[in-house]
Give the backbone structure.
Amino acid sequence: MCGIIGAISQRNVVKTLINGLYRLEYRGYDSVGLAIVDENSKLFRVREVGKTIDLDKKIQHLAVFGKIGIAHTRWATHGKLSERNAHPHVSDYISIVHNGTIENYRELKTWLRKKKYLFFSETDSEVIAHLIHWETQRNKNLLRAVQKVVLMLHGNYSIIAMDSRDPKRLVSARTFNPLIIGLGKGENFLASDQVALSSIVERFLHLKKNEIAEVSKNDVKILSFDGRLIERRDVSSQIYQEIPTKGLYRYYMEKEIYEQPEIIEELIKDRFDSKNNIFFSDLEDSRIEEIFIKMESIQIVACGTSYNAGMVGKYWFESFTDISCNVEIASEYCCRNHVISRNSLLITLSQSGETADTISALNLSKNLKNYLASLAICNVSNSYLVRESDFSIMTKAGMEISVASSKSFTAQLTTLLLLVAYIRNLRKKSKDSFQKDLFLSLKKLPKYIEKLLLNHQEKMNFLISDLFDKRNVLILGRGDHFPIALEGALKLKEIAYIHAEANYAGELKHGPLALVDKKIPIIIIAPYNGILSKIRLNIEEIRSRRGMLYVITDERVSIQEDDQTKIISLFDIEEIISPIFYAVPFQILAYNIALFKNIDMDHPRNLAKSVTVE
Ligand code: F6R
């Protein structure tokens, strides 16, 4: 999703900005742009619908040079995908880049039109450029102009503004969307994501909500929206976030699917001590143990794949501990009233830690009574959710580039399961062998996933070729495998562009059975577990209506094949780790269909990796 960068230096910043754009690519975008002020104070802007590489080529050809500049990756929210909607937006000598949305842009546009401003784009962002221009005419100073403008804007945003008449400073402001300042020697940078800057600086300042920064080559001044000067200590981070390469894989998605066995193996190594007891080095603060013992309920909030992981977490918390657990989609959680039960813990689950809806939910929870604390389970250690939550646990899946989550999902599930076992142990008066048994089960998981990845053609090819030209698919599951059906359906929608719907297998007879005919493929997840007999009933309901059925199951389960029922028999997986394992066949299925259809699965249409708007 949109990413912004700014640079001011004593050397040419074009390459730095372009490199930053490359590094922001993984967030997902549909157009890019850059503005530079050259040695003669001339503003130079280049925009491109397409990839950073196209902009890069264009700029090399034009031999642009400048020591101050701003750049942007756009993921369209207001106005179609076109060059004139791409950022930076310009109002005479003012140029701006913007991440987020301006809710009152229509009113502002009407007001600006009355002041004779012309609009060249359909975006909400262009009003910011004109408003700053209007204000600089009054008080000549970019910082003061931005201070006035932020009071007029309603919405969630981060912006960087540049004035070509005064190429000695950039002014940036944010409400909700992240913004980080990278501190160099005789040069400073701004970006919406540390990834964009981690190859050039090691010291950072985080701009917080409702703050403005004036950034020059040698200085950074931070002010609150109400004008107070703010002292902020810089933080040092030497984590050079190398953007991983695809290696020999065709897509990041493929690479990330194949990385899963190793990630789980590492998680086991990291989270179990030599006596096979679980420990979380990220939770060293002794208060959290007290909270885990005192808490009476858990509220998980997340979006998309992370929500699906949270759903599995709910089953696990309620099966293996005495704590009740609710899960809610973050975009719903943040927009309704709540009754929070006594002594609750809020858990946010997120790969990126920058998802706007999940951040809103966390922010809302801070004003709600009865939460003991917030805990983020996240894959990005310097993300907003990690910084702003009381406690955090890392899922350690490594940087995920492909827009559709794969390895981050199985890492979230593994982490959740470990957390459940850890909390169970803390709360149990008489300790049992749960952790040690879990260790033994988890140890087998990487091998099973590896085996499936090696043999998937033999096991799954007929399913892949049967489904590849279908428009609709139903996926059914029960219990802790229902969220796996949800995740499977999400993968098919996202990267294979197939309309896939997940249903509780037991709900079939309450409606979806009407869809069953010879044409719509139905996949049912039938692991070997305590509710297999119920799943068998659901299988019979479909068979007796001549539905086109695919049963993904275990070698211990015998189900008769016929011309309408096909069996994908996987390995004997222990019940406790089974949801983690069963996520993988769906990743393989969606990935292979996308491959057949020649879909750029790392960048599925209309989607972005980091969803930073609500
Ligand atoms: C699906 C996918 C999305 C994300 C969702 C939340 O493959 O990747 O549904 O899961 O946008 O993102 P995070 O986990 O970063 O909060």
Observations:
- The chain has two domains: 3-236, 252-596.
